[in-house]
Description:
The protein has helices at residues 4-14, 28-31, 35-46, 66-71, 77-86, 102-109, 130-134, 148-153, 172-176, 212-224, 246-267, 269-275, and strands spanning 21-26, 51-55, 114-115, 123-127, 158-162, 184-193, 196-205, 232-236, 239-245. It is an alpha+beta fold.
Amino acid sequence: MTGIPSLAEDLVALGLRPGATVLAHSSLRRVGAGADAVLAALRTVLGTEGTLVAPTFTAGNSDTSPAYRERIRNMTPEQIRSLQREMTPFDPDSTPSEGMGQLAEAVRCAEGRVRSAHPQTSFAAVGARAGELLIGHDENCHLGERSPLGRLYASDAQVLLLGVGFEVCSAFHLAEYRIPDPPTRTYRCVVMRDRVRQWISYEDIDLDDSDFGALGADFEKSDAARPDPVVRGGRVGDTHARLFPLDAAVDFATSWLAGKRSRRLFTDPSQNAARFLH
């Protein structure tokens, strides 16, 4: 297993510096180190003035998610009602993240961590700016201007992809809110409010990460052609990592999505219809 000093050296070589704010996505299986070691290495490099943020999303409390729809495909109405009664409500203090990886869970469970309160797309953070970046996550705004991503964009934050690709780059979602007339849909989930279990629903952007891999490839290709590329790549532990400014990625994504998705929606009616069957 790769040790903390070696991981810290790799992160410094990649370009991470003390005092930085970084949004991290990772696959520790590829890094070759445990969550505690990677978290310790990141906090060592960032120092007391730095801030580490991780997505701690939760899909299991929703009855409008693709996973839920697949789960109930062959259920009877009574079985569906029974499942809904058993679904665990979101509680920012205790609900684990789902599918976000071990590092995200380590941040969520770290001493002194702050977690935003959105019942589906929360973030957790540790460090000097954790509170100011995560407070006030609007319930009607998964990943837009009134979410931590909006504050990270305005804060010179960086994105760290550690053993994962652009497909999971949550910062790209902020760009979906910035393109003209983005499609919306209704979301529904169960939460705990004043110790009472209740269902809530809200309208928000119809989030779609299906083209983020292609978007990221074009972002990296375009950046490599610049005289001063902002995407830095290198080894961290046993895997490849990327470090880049969040605002540059979102700016590129906004322009890219405005063009690519407009053409897709208007030239491929079948795909357009499929996107709205939620």
